[in-house]
Amino acid sequence: MGFEIVVVGTSTGGLKAMQTLLSSLPEDFPLAVVIVQHREAKAEVGLCEYLNRHSNLIVSEPEDKEEILPGRVYLAPSDYHLLIEKRAFALSTDPPVSFARPSIDVLFESAADEYGKAVIGVILTGVKHDGARGLARIKSRGGFVLIEDPKTATCREMPQAAMDHTPVDRVLPLEEIAPLLQELTVSRAVSYGV
After folding, report:
1. Which of 127, 129, 130 is nearest to 108 (CA)?
2. How far apart are CA 155 and CA 11, in angstroms?
3. Nearest Cα to 75, choosing from 49, 97, 95?
């Protein structure tokens, strides 16, 4: 079985990080990419439109119960937790987790439970520790975990917290993450004869 989904968590400095990541993924990238970017409850509109100008893949905010499709980018709506259940999205207004809604941990933990070893978890620049616990869950279910190098991140706190919390598969500068994601989709597909 190959990888099916990439889940990404970011906070402060995330706009530039997402732009760099998405602009480097090719239009035929075969996996769904789901992103939690910490935003204010009344965040400005237009983030998807902005990211679409820098992405080869379609970027949208998912609706509750929307099916997850390969080759698409999904951005968690502001002020909602984004979960994955039965290969579809669920939106929740449960209380903030790690002072955040949407919470990276909530997305990552639900992705780990749903996809097991078919999920790639990525932590990018950010403050606080949201995502560390979720990344550990992905690793414990056999998924692949990848962290932006804290030394080159705009904000090192979130990637460092993730590194301190779980053994990671790779730590890379931002510019090297998209090429590795492409390599992983090919190598895992080949190794499983897909």
Report:
1. 130
2. 9
3. 49
Q: At what angle do helices 132-140 and 104-115 cross, to 10 degrees?
A: 10
Give the length of the chain: 194
Instruction: Using alpha carbons, select from 131, 129, 115, 61 the residue that is nearest to residue 91.
Output: 61
H or E element at residue 20? helix 14-24
Q: Give the pLDDT of residue 12.
A: 93
Rounded to the nearest 10°, the torsion over CA 160, 30, 106, 49 is 90
Q: What is the set of active-site residues?
A: 11, 38, 130
Q: Model-level pTM greater than 0.90?
A: yes
Cα–Cα distance for residue pair 153/120, rounded to 1 Å: 19
Q: What is the CA radius of gyration of the chain?
A: 15
- The rounded distance, in Å, linking the Cα atoms of 191 and 194 is 8
CA distance 42 to 21: 25
pLDDT tens readout for residues 52-85: 999 999 999 999 999 999 999 999 999 999 999 9
Q: Name the residue among 13, 10, 33 with its Cα closest to residue 23.
A: 33
Q: H or E segment at 110?
A: helix 104-115
Residue 110 tokens, joined = 């639900």
